[in-house]
Amino acid sequence: MTGLNLNYETNRFIRGMNIFADCLLAGALWIFTSIPIVTMGASSTALYYTVNKCIRNERSYVWKEYFPAFKDAFKKSILTWLIFLILGVFLFLDVNLMKQVLQQESPLGALYYFFLVLSAAALAWVFYVFPYMARFEGGIRETLQKSFVFMIVNMGWSALLVVIFIACVLICNHMQFLLILFPGGFTLLQNVILEKLFRKYMKPEDIQKEMEANRRWKQ
């Protein structure tokens, strides 16, 4: 019995180390492909796809899946990312402007909190858009619309994702060596949450197909 428990703990440790190594590799690939900035959407789509397939479901290898996923998502993800990039710049400028107005004790300063909440909502929307793109077919308009609905309907989970993201940013700000682990680690947590939500709206036959694919790979 002791031997069995030891083997179980050893397997858990090895599995944990594999997840850690895969998160590091996935994070490094995300950083590398995100350097031009405009490709960050394609990188995020590829990262979610790779984390879901390779790390969560152990159906392939990070190095093997990331770049094909990046290539497949390239065009649609870039266009979608540019929309959010423009929105992000607009909100960033508004937040900073209203912060200055608030410091001057102007009644208009209350808009600072409005734009802060709007920024958090936009960030939460981003956390749904690219995972949705990685998991489902559809054009840009459909992706934006359905991911927005997901974000609104699951407001509590959306808020939790924003809180987790901000917490990760603050931790990495104090421990910069964790930055390379941030993309893969956060996406892994994001995947745990979003897959539960996505499955509520997936067809039973699609869920069964994925489960069978996972079983075949592990056999």
Walk me through this protein's architecture.
The model has no long low-confidence stretch (mean pLDDT 90). The chain is built from 8 helices and no strands. It has 219 residues and is mostly helical. The chain starts with a helix and ends with a helix.
Classify the helix fraction into a percent range.
Answer: over 70%
Spell the H/E element sequence. HHHHHHHH
Unreliable residue stretches:
none
Largest sheet entry: none
Query: What class do helices, strands and sheet pairing give?
Result: mainly alpha
What's the total helix number? 8
Mean pLDDT: 90
Number of strands: 0
Shape: globular
Strand content: under 5%
* Cα separation of the termini: 25 Å
Gyration radius over CA: 19 Å
What is the topology?
Layout (H helix, E strand, L loop, with lengths): L1 H33 L5 H17 L5 H42 L7 H25 L4 H14 L1 H20 L7 H18 L4 H15 L1
Write a short abstract of this structure.
The chain is mostly helical and 219 residues long.
Descriptors:
219 residues, mainly alpha, 8 helices
